Amino acid sequence: MRLDAAHDAIETLVALEEANRVHYILKWNPRRNDVSAWRNRVFVEGKVSQTRPGERVGILVTQERKKVDKKTYTFKRIVRVTEQTMDKHGQMLLAPQVTLEGWWTDLELSPEKVIALYRDHATSEQFHSEFKTDLDLEGLPAASSPPTLW
Questions:
Q1: Is the CB of residue 106 less than 8 Å from the CB of residue 78?
Q2: Has this prediction a pTM greater than 0.90?
């Protein structure tokens, strides 16, 4: 299953962990997390690469234990921090621009592969949206609605 950040709740994680024969990637919603603290941690403990001049990306995999209803679960979270000090045209930024992202998963794949698999979710959603728009499927009545007779 691939779920967006709207489903990032401990109850969802527990249900996914307890489901049989289900693997998942759930987009983490950093909400009120300290972006600077995550940036520092990821760039110290994680794998860091420079993707272009003025931009570096760090990826860190964490194991987090959470107790829910007297049962302890261990969840894996992939955290990616992107720090830009220069835009793609070479213009230096006054202050670094930092982006914090993350994904909960139970997949035993590289962090890069998990992120790529999640990104495919957005591609799928885009095709779905275009399909509905191009065929004007938004205007169709719901299956449970009785037909309108004129």
A1: no
A2: no
